[in-house]
Design brief:
The protein is of the alpha/beta class and 354 residues long. The chain contains 14 helices and 13 strands.
């Protein structure tokens, strides 16, 4: 694939809209010159910012939309009022029609997942999509999924998550066979609910290519980076994500309070500022965004409060997923896993749609 990557951007999504999305695209273009952008949103608002970035304007098209999904909208409400007419929907639809290779939005997560699933559908035989986050660890980074797309999981869904997470890890970490672990209450094979144990048996016996099944991992292994890919269902994963983000903010506040507690502490904080900024950047799951896995198209969720640098990271993440053919890698690994599918369960899973 040598041609430009075409990335559709929901310019109205997130807390800041075009004032962040357009400069972020300019930053991404500097680092990824083989990219084109399609902006969806209020044409005048986008144009006012875009005119300050001549190089970006030359590689961009703007499509006017009069409707923007609010951060407070429920997924059902967003689908009802924003289907086909909102900037979020049209950004996703550009991927479906082949106008774009990837969609990026910082908008309402639940609405984005609902619209993406409704518009793009899931790739066979995946039943439910997942949100994958890139997680800081003591040995670098790991991928954690699902962090909020689906409540509950049978054994097959967990196996699907493992396959999709491993395919993403091959791209993000540039390794042929990433290690995969199932998040559990203990590492012993007899522990945990039956769905997790059953998924573990399948992954252990399948010996799938391009994946090394590690076994069960526990919550404290997330920070250690015990494996490249941590697999869990969306309820647990979302709590883990919010806990990690809250803990990062808590520790940051502790450090700020300690550094401001005395004159000597403030002097020390001045000289330690570069190290403290580096620490702050590492704490909490990567702000650049999450990847929606299992869809028949590439969709990236940027953080709602992202600044231009963080949003540019989400754009680059989408670029990498397309350039390194994420969907093809997932299909390839699913084909190998099809002979080891567990017996279907009758549990009904519902979306979290946070």
């Amino acid at each position: 694939m040598a041609s430009d990557i075409r990335i559709a951007l929901d310019a109205m999504g997130g807390d800041h809209g075009p004032t962040v999305v357009v400069p972020a695209a300019a930053v991404a273009l500097e680092r990824r010159p083989d990219v084109q952008f399609l902006f969806y949103g209020e044409e005048k608002a986008i144009g006012r910012v875009l005119e300050r970035h001549a190089k970006l304007a030359a590689k961009s098209r703007v499509f006017n939309t009069d409707v923007a999904v609010k951060m407070s909208d429920k997924p059902s409400q967003a689908l009802r009022t924003g289907r086909r007419v909102s900037s979020m929907w049209q950004t996703i639809e550009a991927v479906k029609t082949g106008e774009a290779d990837c969609a990026v939005s910082a908008g309402n997560t639940g609405a984005l997942m609902a619209m993406a699933k409704f518009c793009l559908h899931t790739m066979a035989p995946i039943e439910r999509p997942a949100i994958a986050a890139i997680w800081p660890t003591l040995r670098g980074e790991s991928i954690v999924l699902d962090v909020g797309a689906t409540i509950g999981a049978d054994a097959q869904h967990l196996v699907d998550l493992a396959v999709m997470g491993a395919a993403m890890a091959r791209i993000v970490f540039d390794i042929d066979s990433p290690t995969v672990g199932l998040l559990n209450v203990g590492v012993e094979e007899i522990k945990g609910v039956e769905e997790v144990r059953a998924a573990g048996r399948v992954l252990r016996e399948a010996k799938l290519p391009n994946m090394r099944y590690h076994g069960f991992v526990e919550g404290d292994d997330l920070g250690k980076g015990a494996v490249d890919v941590f697999v869990t269902e969306g309820f647990t994963g979302n709590i883990a994500l919010k806990t990690a983000e809250g803990t990062a903010r808590q520790l940051s506040q502790y450090i700020r309070d300690a550094m401001g507690s005395s004159l000597m502490s403030r002097i020390g904080a001045f000289f330690a500022r570069p190290a403290l900024e580096a620490l702050r950047a590492k704490m909490g799951p990567r702000a650049s965004g999450g990847v929606f896995l299992g869809l028949d198209g590439v969709v990236i969720k940027a953080h709602g409060g992202a600044d231009a640098e963080s949003y540019a990271g989400a754009v680059e993440l989408g670029y990498d997923m397309v350039r390194q053919e994420l969907l093809g890698k997932i299909r390839e690994m699913i084909a190998h896993a099809n002979g080891f599918r567990p017996a279907p369960a009758h549990s009904r899973r519902r979306p979290i749609l946070t």
